[in-house]
Amino acid sequence: MIDFTYEKKTTISEALMQLFTIVRLLRSDQGCPWDREQGTKQVSTHLIDETYEYLDAVLCEDKEGQSEELGDVMLNAMMLLEMHQETDALASIEALNLVCEKLIRRHPHVFSDQKVANSSEVIDVWNAIKVNVEGKTHQKDDFFSRVPPSLPPLEMANEIQKKIRKVGFDWPESQGVFDKVQEELEEVATAYKNPEDKQEDLEMELGDLLFAAVNLCRYLGYNPSLALHRSNQKMRRRFNALYQRASAEGIVLSRENLAYMDRLWETIKEEE
C-alpha cells in the first residue's frame, strides 16, 4: 500500500502537481498493474474518448459534468507526460518548454510589436511563421505530407480541404459548394440505378458525396466531426424516446409497425 493523503488544493499549480504525483504513484512498482500496462497508444485513445465526453457535457451545458470530464482529460494528458518522463527524464519538461516557446513565437501580435486587425490575420501570421520561421511545410513530392496519416477518414477529409484552402484553391462562394453536394448525390443515384455498369463505382460515389458534405461543413465554418457527433446524439435521444414509448404501449419495433413508428417519431420531433 502506498501512503498518500489527498488534499483539496486551492491553486491550479498545486492541483496539477497533485494529479501528476498520483499518476506517478499509479505507474510505480507499488502502484496499479493496469496503469503500468498502459502505453501511449492506449492512453491517446482514452484521451480522445474523454475529450468527446467533455464535449458532450459542454453541449448539454452540464457544468458539473464539464468539471468531471475535464479532470479525466487532464488525467490522460498527465499520464502521457509521465510515460515520457519514465523513458527520458527531460522529455516531458522539454515538451512543455517547446509548446511555451511556440506559443510566444507564433503570437508576435501579443508578445512583440506586430499588429493584426482581426482573427483572420492572426491565422495568416501563424501559418507564415510555421512555414517561414519553423520550416514546417510539405514535402516536395507530397503536398499533404503534414496531414497525419492516422487521422480517421472524416477528420482527414477536413484537414485535406483546409490545406488546399490555404493556397487559394477553394470555392469563390457557397452556392458552388451546395451545387457540388447535389452533383455528387446525383452521381450516387446514377451508380445505384446502374449496378451492372462497371464504370459506375457506387462505393466511390458515396465517398465523393461524403467528401463534398465535409467540404460544405468546412466552407460554412463548422467542424464536420462535431456536426456528425451532434446528429448522432440527437438520433440516439429521439430513438430512445421512441423505444421507451413503444415499449410502454406494448408495441414491438418491427417493419410491420413502421407506420406507427413514423407517427411516434414525428410526435417526438414536434415535442422537442
What's a quick, concise take on this entry?
With 272 residues, this protein is an all-alpha fold.
Give structural notes.
With 272 residues, the chain is mainly α. The protein folds into three domains: 12-96, MazG-like (Helix Hairpins), CATH 1.10.287; 147-222, Helix Hairpins (Orthogonal Bundle); 227-271. Helix content is 70%, strand content 0%. The protein contains twelve helices and no strands. It has helices at residues 12-27, 33-37, 40-59, 63-87, 91-105, 108-111, 119-133, 153-166, 174-193, 202-219, 224-248, 258-271. Helix 8 packs across helix 10. It is globular and about 65 Å long. The termini are far apart.
List keywords for this structure.
mainly alpha; 70% helix; 12 helices; Helix Hairpins; 3 domains; 272 residues
Main beta-sheet strand count, sense and barrel state? none
Query: In percent terms, what proportion of residues is strand?
Result: under 5%
What would the CATH topology of the largest domain be?
Answer: Helix Hairpins
* Total helical elements: 12
Within CATH, the superfamily of the largest domain carries the name: MazG-like
From the spread of the alpha carbons, the general shape counts as globular
| Structural domain tally | 3
Name of the CATH architecture of the largest domain: Orthogonal Bundle
Percentage of residues in helical conformation: over 70%
Average the pLDDT over all residues and give the rounded result.
Answer: 94
Low-confidence parts:
none
Count of DSSP E strands?
0
Return the structural class.
mainly alpha
Main CATH class of the largest domain: Mainly Alpha
First-residue to last-residue Cα separation: 52 Å
